[in-house]
Write a structure and sequence with these properties.
This protein is mainly alpha-helical. It has one domain. The chain contains 3 helices and no strands. Helix 1 runs antiparallel to helix 3. The longest helix is centred in the last third of the chain and has 26 residues. The protein is elongated.
Length: 72
Amino acid sequence: MDVFLMIATVIIAITLIGIVLLQGQGSGLGTAFGGDAGIHRTRRGVEKTMFNLTLTLASLFLLLSLVTVALH
């Protein structure tokens, strides 16, 4: 059981890193530090799907991490 949780956590972590890196395209460094982008957009299509997938993977990663710690 412990090995399964560790392997699942690593796979989710790697997938989460990849999804976050793919989302980073198009956002400038200036907006990360409070710069005004000047355009307010809503997420649509693939961008919305990737955002929801990121939230799901992050929640699953947190849950698996807490379960792993609780079992030890």
